[in-house]
Amino acid sequence: MNDPPLVLVAEDDEDILALIELRLVRAGYDVVTAADGDAAMQEASKRRPDVAVLDVMMPKLDGYEVTRRFRAAPRTWDIPVILVTARVQEADVARCYAAGANDYVHKPFDPEDLLARVQAALDRTQA
Amino acid sequence: MSRRRLTPRIMVAGGVLAVLVSASFGFAITAIGDLRRSHRLAAHSEEAILQARRSEKLAVDLETGVRGFLLTDQERFLQPFVQGLAPARALAAQLERLVRDNPRQRATAAALRRALDSYIEDYARPVVAEERRTDLPPRRDLAVTAESKRRLDGIRAGFDRFVAHETMRARARQSEADSQADRAVIFGWIGLLGSILLVMAYTAYLTNSVLFPLRRIAAGARRLARGELGARVPEQAPGEVGELGRTFNAMAASLQQNRDVLETQNAELEEKQHELARVLDQVATEKTSVERLQRFGERLAQETELRPLAQTILWGLCELAGAQAGVLYAGETGGPPALAATRGVPAERLPATLQVDDGLAGAALAERARVVSSHGETGMRMTAFGEQVRLHQEVHLPLSASGRTVGVVSLARVQDVPFDPAELDMLEHLAGQSALAVTGALSLEASRRAARLNKAVLDTASDAFVSVSEAGRVREWNPRAEAIFGWTSEEVSGRDVTGLLIPPRHRERWQTAFAGMARGGEEGWLNRPREMQALRRDGREVPVELTISSLELGGVRVFNAFIRDISARKRGERHFGIQHAVTEALAEIPGLEEAIPRLLEVLGSGLDWRLGSFWLVGEATGELRLAGTWHDPTTVRAAALEAVRRRKSFNKGEGLPGRVWADEEVTWVKDVADGDSSPRIRAAAELDLTTAIGVPIRSGGRVIAVLEFYDRDIGQPDESLIALMGYISQLIGQFVERKEAERQAERLKDEFFALVSHELRTPLTSIIGYLELVLEDEGGLDADQRRFLSVVERNSRRLLRLVGDLLFVAQVEAGSLALERGSVELDALAREAVEAARPRAEDNGVTLQHELDPLPPLTGDRDRLAQVFDNLISNALKFTPAGGHVVVRVTSAGHVGVTEVRDTGMGIAAAEQERLFDRFFRSTTATEQAIPGVGLGLTIVKAVVEAHGGTISVSSQEGAGTTFRIELPLSAPADGSAAAPGVGTPGAAPEVPR
Fold first, then answer.
1. Which of A57, A86, A91 shows the shortest C-beta gap to B816?
2. Long-range contacts of range B656-662, CB-CB < 8 Å, 24 or more positions apart?
3. How far A88 CA sits from the closest chain B CA (Å)?
4. Could you tell me if A107 lies within 8 Å of chain B, comparing CB atoms?
5. Contacts of A102 in chain B (CB under 8 A)
6. What ipTM score was computed for the predicted complex, to two decimals?
7. pLDDT tens, B382-418?
């Protein structure tokens, strides 16, 4: 059996971070967490994730910036990114995609929905 | 005695007399005739004798001549012969003639003539001839002469016989003559005496018969002639004379009779004559009076001014009435008459106007009838020669014409002689005439006043007034027209208005229209304002608004026009248009940079300038940067602009833009080349752009941009232009500030949203997330715990929803709604919503049903549309009491999916239906019945529906129920036709990239 896909989750709220991690683990994914943008970059360089779930509002580097950096680096440019955001305005949505994210969910999220999107992102890369 | 008897008698007597006298004279004449004849005969004989003697003598001469010649042989002695030859013959012949009545004597005379001839021819001539030839000897001569003598003696003898006989005859004739003379004398005497007698008898007869009677008649006639018509004459005269006498008598009698008759008639005639004279006098008097009236009328007609007219009237009436004093009041009806003329009384003592109750004159005015007063009741007095004289008789006459009373005239006389009715009637009649004249004068004054007013109005009118004849010639031209067009009234009078005021390109059209108007047509040109360009004297055009009207004055048509110089208005309109265009240009533009080209175009073309530049102050660079240029393509070639556009920046104070930046005020440059020889300016000058204007744009207290325009002739800016520039500058400045504020607000809003979104949702995420975890764990909880936690979860979700609704509504307000785009099946959604609400419905005792047709999918936000259903069903359940029904229907109608949620609930009052979809609106029913809710549900429903391009409507009846109807466009219509346009949602998220 293959290794389970690695999901990088970056979220500054501990509770939500734990929640997402729990959901993903329960769904059978491997999860690595980061509490801010810098940590996310570090983790990504340590071990390349198969998909990243990034909170948009984080200290140090926000989710957009991390996405942009991913896209800018050859190693990480094709990692699917799902942004988690509490901001739901059109401009915010546009910003997500402009930054290079593949998808987004908004808080509070339906755990099924999140899982489905993660899976979809993984399916796409493997397709 | 018969009539004719005398005449025959006289005639007969006269005839007889005549006969006798004639006979006597006849005899006498005869006798005298005889006498004369005899006398003549005697004389004749005497004559013959004489002739004979002469002849004889001549014959002697002849002989003598011959003899002499013969004897002397000298021609001169022959002279008597020669000379007497012809006469002798002639005489002889004559002699013969003389006595031809007597044969004897004639024979004698003839013989004598023959003898003479013979002497001459037979003897004398031959002898003489012979003598001449031969000169005969003397003997011969003697013989010859003796022959001659013998012959001559013979002749002489003959003559003697002749003479003797003739003498005897003569004597006889003479004696006869004498006797005849005697006879004649006798007859004469007889006749004479007889005649005398007869004449005397005749005369006596006549005298008696005729003369005396005639004399008597003549005497009678003389007496008659003297007038004694009783003269008569005796009538017993014979014949006609008697007749004459009788006739005379008759005539005299007749004359007498006639005289009597004539006398009678004469008397009658005299009477008639007297009467005629009386009548003539009367006529003369009337004529005089008519003349006076006529004079009065003429004098009236001559005056047209009120005062002189009043004077004339008063004077005339006083004269005609024999009044020494008088007063005349006259004025317009509607007001009391004013004092117009006085005579004999001082004006100062009289009231200026006549009131209706003011004395006798006032009474006359009030009653419109004449008022007469005698014996000086009013005690009016006039001053004459320094004394106060009492006026005894007065009359006050109203001046009335055509039913209007225009005044009163009062006349008074000193003599105490009342006015007689005839006088009064005449005065009244004249008063009527005067009233007409006064009315005329008043009208004249009134029309003069009106004309003055008119003129004043036209003179001071703020519009130009031009009046032209039918042919287009100027008749009136008021001062404002002079000011606007630059022509004086004298210069344009009579000139063709088309040539003066209409620009050449329009002249033809105007002339056609004008001709049409003159004919009575072209109604559309009249009585409505027209805008047009008019020509000034200096050749420039001025925009005007004119209204033409047509008027007929005394049969002549004129056209009047009020003309207004609307250049200020036009300028104002243009400026307003520019302001409006600028406002428009700035309306939908996110930022100033995008607006610059349009701004330049609006200003440049609106103000007719050729080249414009927009300079932005770069805060970072500390320079003015060229942000945009514009030029008028018809007058400025793009290529030529390059030199001007080459310069892209200015420092503060440098060049026109820099100066405007530094000085911070509108700068007008009359000649750009003056003091500036930069390449840019030189290039501009080459393009004939020698005037310029620069406008600073201020925002937030400092200059942020500079507008710069160039043209051939930018006139010195007037107030209007400066105001416009100021306003534009303000607009742009405000725009920039607004945009800035918007951005600021946007930022703040975004931050707020972000905050709210984030800060509210983050803990909720955790709450709900962990609750879900716990509840998912099947065995970890007992029933109570599970129930409790469910309550917690439910309320957390409710809280989350509320936050979401609030944010949703806020987004809708901000216009930044973000919707998902997915494929949604309405019927499925409806089914789910119904099923989700079923427990609640059962709890409330309300039947909940659905009628769902399968629909093709539409593109939209599934969650939001689900929310729509949930909200509507929730409301229906909230407001329907137990026992009621709620039905959810989904069908299609062409391109549109129709959803209806019908309930039999409390219904909504008509007044509240309008506000149903407002934020936080709760119906009174809801409040009264404390039905839970915040008032956002329908707001969100409406926003979502409309964001999907659909419509929502409500129909409700209080106490009966409510139906909400939603129409949403489908991506593919149910009947398979092409997708309706506009499907999809504005502001939807873009497709997820693959």
1. A91
2. B656/B692, B656/B694, B656/B708, B657/B613, B657/B615, B657/B624, B657/B694, B657/B706, B657/B708, B658/B624, B659/B694, B660/B694, B660/B695, B660/B696, B660/B703, B660/B706, B660/B708, B661/B615, B661/B617, B661/B624, B661/B696, B661/B703, B661/B706
3. 7
4. yes
5. 992-993
6. 0.84
7. 666 767 777 778 888 888 888 888 888 888 888 878 8
